[in-house]
Automatic annotation (TrEMBL):
<protein>
    <recommendedName>
        <fullName>Dehydrogenase/reductase SDR family member 7C</fullName>
    </recommendedName>
</protein>
<dbReference type="InterPro" id="IPR052148">
    <property type="entry name" value="SDR_family_member_7C"/>
</dbReference>
<keyword id="KW-0732">Signal</keyword>
<dbReference type="InterPro" id="IPR002347">
    <property type="entry name" value="SDR_fam"/>
</dbReference>
<keyword id="KW-0520">NAD</keyword>
<dbReference type="GO" id="GO:0006874">
    <property type="term" value="P:intracellular calcium ion homeostasis"/>
</dbReference>
<comment type="similarity">
    <text>Belongs to the short-chain dehydrogenases/reductases (SDR) family.</text>
</comment>
<keyword id="KW-0560">Oxidoreductase</keyword>
<dbReference type="Pfam" id="PF00106">
    <property type="entry name" value="adh_short"/>
</dbReference>
<dbReference type="GO" id="GO:0016616">
    <property type="term" value="F:oxidoreductase activity, acting on the CH-OH group of donors, NAD or NADP as acceptor"/>
</dbReference>
<keyword id="KW-0521">NADP</keyword>
<dbReference type="InterPro" id="IPR020904">
    <property type="entry name" value="Sc_DH/Rdtase_CS"/>
</dbReference>
<dbReference type="InterPro" id="IPR036291">
    <property type="entry name" value="NAD(P)-bd_dom_sf"/>
</dbReference>
Amino acid sequence: TYAPKLILMDISDINCIQDVAKEILNCYGCVDILINNASMKVKGAVQSISLELDKKIMDANYFGPITLTKAILPSMISRRTGQIVLINSIQGKIGIPFRAAYAASKHAAVGFFDCLRAEMEEFDISVSTVNPTFICSYHRQPAPGNWEASIWK
């Protein structure tokens, strides 16, 4: 039995994820179940969302989970056991208006984890993707000109 340890991480900061994974593995030795459940979304017309914000959404929703998964995966492979879960979104299967960046990031994540599922079968590592419908998230109303505040976390 291990005492819980709080480790804070910004999933959109790809550069810190490797260090966090090392900290977790050093502390506990292994990860039995990895649940990727972080997400960012923004609502707006394609032409009104900056490329900078598109990239930020992609970092949090696609590159973040795959970077963390890739950091933990060698330990699971060497032990030939583990479970990886992606909590994604129905928008990873269908796109809806005013959610292009979010839907694109979720589609990419589904594609990656579907491929990973097939590749990990030989190592007895289970990979699951959960695609719930709309959920109520924390949301802040943005101040004029402040696109960061329009992000749901």
